[in-house]
Amino acid sequence: MSSLQTAINARTSSNLLQLASAQSRSQVLKRIKIVLEKHKEQIFEANLEDIAYAQKEVEAGRLSQSLFKRLDIKGENEAKFETMLKGIDEIDMLEDPIGRISMHRELDEGLVLKRVSCPVGVLLVIFEARPEVVVNIACLSIKSANAAILKGGKEASKTNRVLADLIKQAILSVLDENSSSNNDCPEFPINAIQLVDTRDEIHELLQLEKYIDLAIPRGSNALVKYVQNNTRIPVLGHADGLCSIYIDQNCDINKAAKIVVDAKTDYPAACNSVETLLVHADSLSECFPAVAKALIDSKVVLHLDSKSKSALLDSGIDFNTNASYIVDAVPEDYNTEFLSLELAVKVVSNIEEAITHINTHGSKHTDCIITSVESNGEYFMNKVDAAGVYMNASTRFADGFRYGFGAEVGVSTNKTHARGPVGLEGLTIYKYKLYGIGQAASEYGPGKKQYTHRDF
Amino acid sequence: MSSLQTAINARTSSNLLQLASAQSRSQVLKRIKIVLEKHKEQIFEANLEDIAYAQKEVEAGRLSQSLFKRLDIKGENEAKFETMLKGIDEIDMLEDPIGRISMHRELDEGLVLKRVSCPVGVLLVIFEARPEVVVNIACLSIKSANAAILKGGKEASKTNRVLADLIKQAILSVLDENSSSNNDCPEFPINAIQLVDTRDEIHELLQLEKYIDLAIPRGSNALVKYVQNNTRIPVLGHADGLCSIYIDQNCDINKAAKIVVDAKTDYPAACNSVETLLVHADSLSECFPAVAKALIDSKVVLHLDSKSKSALLDSGIDFNTNASYIVDAVPEDYNTEFLSLELAVKVVSNIEEAITHINTHGSKHTDCIITSVESNGEYFMNKVDAAGVYMNASTRFADGFRYGFGAEVGVSTNKTHARGPVGLEGLTIYKYKLYGIGQAASEYGPGKKQYTHRDF
Lengths: 456, 456
Hints:
2 copies of one chain form a homodimer.
Chain A: H1 3-17, H2 22-38, H3 40-59, H4 65-69, H5 79-93, E1 101-108, E2 111-119, E3 122-127, H6 132-143, E4 147-151, H7 157-181, E5 193-196, H8 199-205, E6 214-218, H9 221-229, E7 243-247, H10 253-265, E8 274-280, H11 287-297, E9 301-304, H12 306-314, E10 326-328, E11 342-348, H13 351-361, E12 366-370, H14 374-383, E13 388-393, E14 410-412, E15 420-422, E16 428-439, E17 454-455
Parallel strand pairs in A: 3-4, 3-6, 4-5, 7-8, 7-12, 8-11, 9-10, 9-11, 12-13
Antiparallel strand pairs in A: 1-2, 1-17, 2-16, 14-15
């Protein structure tokens, strides 16, 4: 099928989905779970084929270990697969994001305005490696009444294909059942979820802003940048996750060490891991050495500026034993998302310098202050321009599940539409519905009819 | 000043504005009004110069009459100028859009998440002709704590410059006063509002997505398209306003005529005027001829398809007398925003065909159904994909003032961020503030601490 036809199918599906009731969307979600469960052996088989092929790619140096690790859909004792299925239930149980009224206003007697949430329309989601994303995004899209075009990584192509086919099979089986029983939703679109296989298609789809309303790239910096630079479709997501933690003048040393170690080591490849540590000069003699020691104990390589290096030397840490964990920082380190057990360290003379550094070098993802002075915390949180601004908590909390959104399509560093972890709400927009009884705008104005502008 | 320096100034101002209290923003708004009032003769003088120059441009055929008409800032008995000043009060009195909490959730004991509205950051607003837009946008930006870079049309350059200088003077006078009285807001940024003069600067500024968060073009289709095609900054606005009205099978003939005439003739050059009339075949014999007659009486030229032309002929309208108001429609008419007293007419055999036509040819601005069957109205409103979907009311109501927003930055046909008439809310986004007491993310999970996810 041509990319244009795929996009047209998605748009047509989106038009039908505007009318899909919450019940019918829930029915499809439940059926998807049943069909996937029933055909799990088929999914595991395809997955094994992908893994076998990827193994060779890793050996040939054409695929990274980290991507390879994410390919497996089964997990130990099928735990990963079960989590994926449970995720469908969780999405199904979330409150319906469609049809919510955020404004209800009388403009005049008999002229009533409602602002009602509705799906964005057609989503293009591009991701790498993890095949369960097919199921996750398909379910989020169906829940929010959006049509979706999915493109996974070629390393998981066989698994992705089976999953997409099973999703279509589930939709078809609901349709069959409903057409015979005259049930709700005879028109649920079979092309609500489409999978495309080749990279060429992505380039073509990115040109079709007439049919596609939102592009969501999930994956490497290179993937996100490629999408951002090659489309006029609005892009939701983040290219970089350059998070910083600032250790203020006064703070609890133990808490500081615990937060920084967690933020760096819990999952170093994650976008919400810390990459830069800023230290107030007054915290150099006591707090910083304790934090540095805890980091080195966790095998973190510290890229130190001259002041922090001196402080560490003064603290009595053995530079010979720990030589492999201590390197001199270069300017580029402060613009680097290491995604590994490495951390850039810089000393600042006050909170203002820390904020300026973050607003200049950060990626507006998540930044944290560790302080025992609440007013400093508020000041930092107000003045740092980022999706997440934290006081005394690890940057790793920046995540849709942790925020209680149930599911997320990604984390956005955009300044418009949706920011931070994006759940179902980010897949909706609104329309204004105006109910009249024959009014003309020219009837209103000075000396004529007046608007009442009364909220219900 | 270079464009880069302008953008950096704006970003620095935006950082300061994050902390500007509602009181200080209000103080500046009030001062702007006072300063503009005090220097009105200076403004009128500059405006007369612009008008004199523009007059020559019109005579030479280099400026349109419609742009020329919008240049005057004074109006009869200074009425336009007074309206502009009154607009400052109105913006000042609107509820503060900053600091609103849209989520307040305990993630765990001592770990509290707040979603708080904040300014988008730096706006780039590009507009044509009407110089009062300088004041209007400056005040909206200040109210919403955004920094703004403004570029007006060169036809109003002298007036724009005086207005921008007076706005800066107002900010400076507040700063002077506060620095001596140790008052609130010693740091209100003098570069909060900057005016740029040349078109070259626009092209340069559109490349500076690092410093500019949102571009808002207001003006011709060509201007908006130029901005959309030349930047990676998110663009808010609409290139086209191709609104349609569909006359359903059953409807009140008088209301239909009244609504369609208003939507076409109240202000034909406006984006919310109707451009296409779709008529259900069953309404051809009675309703349509009455509507057509009312339109012709209002000097509207009808571009008729063969069926609507036959119906009009059958109705007994004199084609000879009205020859200049009856032309044969060509396919391109249904993609045309006439912006004048012309209307494309097409007959459809059912509501579905009307919806498909609108979703294919429309610009997602505002579309209306005229019907006496409420369920048809709801169906149409749900399935038409547009910022505004109306039942039995003129498309001309699509406007921030009419919706009761007090002020608007424009009308958006985007599918993300803000849709329809955009007021202060569209100039805000949110950040997530997380307040902890030293929590690490690795403390949570199966067999460990659990999230409470309890909304306050």
